[in-house]
């Protein structure tokens, strides 16, 4: 089930989707369909994947008909194949047609994210590595995108700039070095907040380790270099591998001994899962 913040973000996005899609009204449906006519519809998978976002689809349809009878057959997180009926629902025919594209836009995007996350998780089976998302989400969709990542079996990194320190190259340059950046920021934040430092060289890894940070990111390193860094760190900090992570590469990276692999493509290069709406009576 979606948490309250995720559902509230969906409500805000629906208002935007309604305004851009409907305007003054659905002139096709409203001039062809009797306002009192009811029908039954199904959401059907047309490709292999993992479903996510059914609560959002339900919200969309119930905005048009609050009395829609909504029956989920394959809940979020379910593996689906072509022809699988994901949900069946009955209600006002105008509501089913006017809400269709908005519901599918949400559902297909979120299911696409969940599907890719699931494929990544399969690549690291047998290891202790966690797959993480990033902040590279569609603006306004962060809660939904990160929910979909979890439905695919992967994990969430920080939600925003407010819940974890991430010292990157520009911060390091301004501060005068990793040590200086860590010392300065420790003076101003609670001890409970974790500090992660982005590194690109072995010298930077050694400096971050000496600064006693919580997580060291190995950014855009070769697998061989990552393995060397893992040996240097020797479990004295958590290790995140990042940069150009693909399904073809992550298994090899997982075997270097890192703790996390972050993949921006989980949310920034989404391929929507093909799902359609079918009227059955």
Description:
The protein has 281 residues and is of the alpha/beta class. The chain has two domains: 4-120 and 270-279, Alpha-Beta Complex (Aldehyde Oxidoreductase, domain 3), CATH 3.90.1170; 122-268, TIM Barrel (Alpha-Beta Barrel), CATH 3.20.20.70. Helix content is 42%, strand content 19%. The protein has helices at residues 4-21, 29-32, 54-64, 93-123, 142-151, 169-175, 178-186, 202-210, 223-233, 250-254, 265-268; strands at residues 38-45, 49-50, 69-72, 79-80, 85-92, 130-132, 165-167, 195-199, 215-219, 238-242, 260-262, 275-279. The strands form three sheets. It has a six-stranded parallel sheet. A four-stranded antiparallel sheet has the order 3-5-1-12, covered by helices on one side. Helix 1 crosses helix 3 (54-64) and helix 8 (202-210) runs parallel beside helix 9 (223-233). It is elongated. The two termini are 30 Å apart. The relative contact order is 0.16. The mean pLDDT is 97.
């Amino acid at each position: 089930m979606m948490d309250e913040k995720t559902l509230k973000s969906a409500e805000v996005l629906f208002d935007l989707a309604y305004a851009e899609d409907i305007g003054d009204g659905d002139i096709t449906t409203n001039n062809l369909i009797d306002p009192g006519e009811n029908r039954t519809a199904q959401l059907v998978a047309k490709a292999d994947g993992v479903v996510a976002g059914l609560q959002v689809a339900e919200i969309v349809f119930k905005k048009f008909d609050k009395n829609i009878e909504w029956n989920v057959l394959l809940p979020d997180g379910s593996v689906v194949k072509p022809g699988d009926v994901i949900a069946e629902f009955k209600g006002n025919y105008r509501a089913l047609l006017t809400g269709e594209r908005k519901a599918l836009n949400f559902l297909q995007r979120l299911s696409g994210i969940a599907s890719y996350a699931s494929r990544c998780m399969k690549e690291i089976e047998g290891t202790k590595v966690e797959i993480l998302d990033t902040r590279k989400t569609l603006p306004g969709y962060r809660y939904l995108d990160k929910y979909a990542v979890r439905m695919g079996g992967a994990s969430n990194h920080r939600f925003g700039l407010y819940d974890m320190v991430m010292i990157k190259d520009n911060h390091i340059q301004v501060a005068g070095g990793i040590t200086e950046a860590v010392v300065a920021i420790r003076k101003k934040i609670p001890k409970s907040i974790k500090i992660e430092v982005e590194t690109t060289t072995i010298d930077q890894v050694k400096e971050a380790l000496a600064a006693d940070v919580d997580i060291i990111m190995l950014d855009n390193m070769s697998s061989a270099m990552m393995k060397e860094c893992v040996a240097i760190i020797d479990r004295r900090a958590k290790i995140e591998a990042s940069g150009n992570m693909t399904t073809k590469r992550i298994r090899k990276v997982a075997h270097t001994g890192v703790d996390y692999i972050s993949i921006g493509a989980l949310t920034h290069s989404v391929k929507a899962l093909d799902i359609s709406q079918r009227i059955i009576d």
